[in-house]
Specification:
This protein folds into two domains: 47-140, uronate isomerase, domain 2, chain A, CATH 1.10.2020; 150-465, Alpha-Beta Barrel (TIM Barrel). The strands form three sheets. Strands 4-5-8-9 form a four-stranded parallel beta sheet, covered by helices on one side. Strands 1-2-3 form a three-stranded parallel beta sheet. It has helices spanning 15-25, 39-43, 51-55, 60-68, 82-92, 100-110, 124-135, 142-148, 165-173, 194-208, 215-231, 251-262, 269-290, 306-312, 327-339, 356-364, 387-400, 420-438, 446-465, and strands spanning 30-32, 151-155, 178-180, 236-241, 293-298, 300-301, 320-321, 345-350, 375-377. With 469 residues, the protein is an alpha/beta fold.
């Protein structure tokens, strides 16, 4: 007999799973330590005019699904008005069954809006009007949504040249949810495009108030900004790169390459790799000096559609999973830091599921006493943050590492409606434990398992990042 869709026991297939979720996981706060929500909108406590603005603007997941269903680009990133775009999304939703978007869409309508109807062309206007009216009220401003969803801390994603003025305003306002910057210096090693990199270095000069013509000045300026971020509460860095870079190089080589960059010379591939390797090392040393956590998101093959790249720009939904070599360069990179006693807490994320066991075992090569889970195999992300991807990541970590010390889920999202992804993860986690108990593969020790679930959902992250929340 079919089970009702999206009940309070959604994804919980046995009694133990239901107990672990409802009595332990559900009550835990959200520590969203990696996301892309705009701090300006939190500082201004933005109220959105309608559901499209908070739900469809910038959401590459939905854009890809709409394109796959033949929706004209005018309704996705073009000139169609917000209601017209929403209607097109409502037409697509019923056809996203078995895609996580179908689950997320209806979970996000339930929380925070309390809407239990399925979204389709027949319900679209009612849902749009009701949610949009709610979003225009103070009770559904950005900060109010964060409070409703029991969020206690978020770490945004910020360029080293950012003034962090909005983070400062949030602190000054006394907003109880911690909104902390995270250092994302990818543009500082964008050696494929020396013109773009020089434009960024010019911005860095202004932000650091340092003339940058030499490699030494470049590192000095970056270090100054790193300290500025630290003084403004930053304790995490993040790198979105294809793979680790660990080429051999000398200081004189890097100084020469940097001079070529400032002269606008197009670098050879080997020069690019050497410079990226040097920068990745310098960033890691700075993080270690200040006791930060460094994060590495590996494996995205980005901006594959050059025609649409020219039309819409980067980060518009034309990316895919890559197949880069990861183990050898990452081990070499981490080993250098370990040998120099400069390896800080590290989280590694993969985008290709073939690399689950690779990263889970690699992390075990660099653990050290005194810091539980110092090297983390991070949560399933981007194309993998769905039921199957999360389950595979949790199983690989369970089999090759110690799941109980895992720092748990994050949204990696630009939307303030994405916090139900934590609920999604927690239900999947509890069902894994519950199923093992029901199958006799784990003891029915509810006290132990309840504590482990609570730790993975929140406590481990709070302890690992050392941030008061």
């Amino acid at each position: 007999m079919p089970v009702d869709f999206l009940t309070e026991d959604f994804l919980l297939t046995n009694e133990t799973a239901r107990y672990l979720y409802h009595e332990h996981a559900a009550k835990m706060p959200i520590y969203d330590y990696h996301c892309h929500v705009p701090p300006q909108q939190i500082a201004e406590d933005k109220r959105f005019d309608n559901l499209t603005q908070i739900w469809l603007y910038g959401d590459h997941y939905k854009w890809r699904a709409m394109r796959a269903c033949g929706v004209d680009e005018a309704y996705i990133t073009g000139k169609a008005n917000d209601y017209e775009s929403f209607l097109k999304w409502a037409e697509v939703v019923p056809y996203t069954v078995r895609n996580p978007l179908y689950h997320w869409t209806h979970m996000e309508l339930r929380k925070p809006f309390g809407i239990t109807k399925l979204l389709n062309p027949q319900t679209a206007k009612e849902i749009y009007d009701k949610c949009s009216a709610m979003l225009r009220t103070r009770e559904y401003s950005v900060r109010s949504i964060m409070r409703k969803m029991n969020v206690v801390a978020v770490c945004t994603t910020d360029d080293p040249t950012d003034s962090l003025e909005y983070h400062q305003r949030i602190v000054k306002d006394g907003f109880k949810v911690k909104v902390l910057p995270a250092w994302r210096p990818d543009r500082g090693m964008l050696t494929e495009d020396t013109a773009a990199m020089n434009a960024w270095i010019d911005k860095l000069e202004l932000a650091a108030d340092i003339d940058i013509t030499t490699w030494q000045q470049y590192i000095e300026a970056i270090h100054k900004r790193h300290t500025y971020f630290h003084d403004n509460g930053c304790r995490l860095s993040d790198h979105g790169i294809e793979t680790a870079y660990a080429e051999d190089y000398t200081g004189s080589e890097i100084a020469k390459i940097f001079t070529e960059i400032r002269q606008g010379t197009q670098l050879t591939r080997q020069e690019q790799l050497k410079f990226k390797s040097a920068m990745l090392y310098e960033f890691a040393v700075m993080d270690h000096e200040k006791g930060w956590v460094q994060q590495f998101h590996f494996g995205a093959l980005r901006n594959n559609n050059t025609r649409m790249l020219r039309t819409l720009g980067p980060d518009t939904g034309y990316d895919c999973i890559g197949d880069f070599e990861i183990a050898r360069p990452l081990c070499k990179f981490l080993d250098r830091l370990e040998n120099e006693h400069k390896l800080t807490k590290t989280i590694v994320y993969n985008l290709n599921p073939r690399d689950n066991e690779l990263l889970a075992t690699l992390a075990g090569s660099f653990q050290s006493g005194g810091i539980p889970g110092k090297i983390q195999f991070g949560s399933a992300w981007w194309f993998l943050d769905q039921k199957d991807g999360m389950t595979k990541q949790l199983n690989a970590l369970s089999n090759m590492g110690v799941l109980s010390k895992f720092v748990g889920m994050l949204t990696d999202s630009r939307s303030f409606l994405s916090y139900p992804r934590h609920e999604y993860f927690r239900r999947i986690l509890c069902n894994l434990f519950g199923t093992d108990v029901e199958n006799g593969e784990l003891p029915n020790d509810r006290k132990l398992l309840g504590k482990i679930v609570e730790d993975i959902c929140f406590n481990n992250a709070k302890q690992y990042f050392g941030l008061k929340a």
